Amino acid sequence: MARYFARSIRNAVVLSVTCSAVMVHSFSNAAEEQLWKNVQSAGVLRCGAAVAAPYVMRDPMTSEYSGFFSDLCRNFGEKILKVKVEFVDTNWDNLIAGLQSKKWDLAMGLNETPERAMAIAFSAPAADDQTTLLINKDNPKFAAAGNRIQDYDKEGVNIVVMAGTSQEKAISAVVKKATILRLPGLDETRLAVITRRGDIIADSSDTNRMFAAANKDWAREIKLDPPLAKQGVSFGLRRDVSPADLQVLNIFITQLREAGEIDKAINAATVAEVSSK
User: Fold this and answer.
1) What is the pLDDT of residues 60-96, one digit of tens each?
2) Domain residue extents for the chain
3) Where are the beta strands (DSSP E) in the chain?
4) b vs e for 41-54, b when ≥16 Cβ sit within 10 Å of the residue's Cβ?
5) How remote is the C-alpha of 45 from its chain's centroid?
6) What's the distance, Cα to Cα, between the start and end of the chain in Å?
7) What number does CATH give the domain 130-230?
């Protein structure tokens, strides 16, 4: 009898564990959003767009979006999902919150950080980036400056940066003496340096390189040694995205990157932006 009860209890435990595993798997599947299926049912892929050239650019006259992340989002929606693509205007302070509240399906051009990974999922990186500085090369404050952050972190120096970006976080972590001016957008940071309200722009290497190329007569990009905040730049997705859906986007990005198509798109976006200045 004791042996029978032992066997019965063992069988009951096995059955309970099996049922629990099935239920957990079922709940897990239910919790994972079938993102691309939902997008296809809606007939539109919504891409959250905060301007940061050359990743995401917006023509103020036509409201048309360009930049290589905009192109990636457009091509993924139209060619892979076979749906229309809609770009939703936002800013860097609201890009992640809007993704979480389902105002858009993808957030474009996000630097990968551990803090952001606590809130959202990331695709495979479409590009690599680091935070660099852009200065007026005739600014006497930097006559003897090199490429160390200490050469620019001084009393009386104003560093401008877009609020809510990974560059804001990166520069805030290393600056001890200079003043940081946190401004709402890319145009505001550039205008601040042009008008001498700011001495330095802290931004992504691609963005600063492009602006320096368009203003060779006075602008110079400084790549810091050691590099500051070197990170991948990816699409952001909600954390409940299914692994299968994430894989679809990752394969799309990885194949384009390995074929050199993303580098071509970055260069094309840079040339287009420089030519427009």
Assistant:
1) 899 999 999 999 999 999 999 999 999 999 999 999 9
2) 35-127+231-275, 130-230
3) 44-49, 57-58, 65-66, 84-89, 106-111, 121-122, 127-136, 158-162, 179-183, 200-204, 219-222, 228-237
4) eeeebbbbbbbbbb
5) 18
6) 90
7) 3.40.190.10
Q: Report the chain's C-alpha Rg in angstroms.
A: 24
Q: Is the pTM for the entire model greater than 0.70?
A: yes
| pLDDT tens, position by position, 186-230 | 899 999 999 999 999 999 998 899 899 899 999 999 999 999 999
Please determine whether the domains at 35-127+231-275 and 130-230 fall in the same fold group of CATH. yes
Tally of residues, the chain: 277
CA–CA gap between residue 125 and residue 209 (Å, rounded): 20
CATH number for the region 35-127+231-275 comes to 3.40.190.10
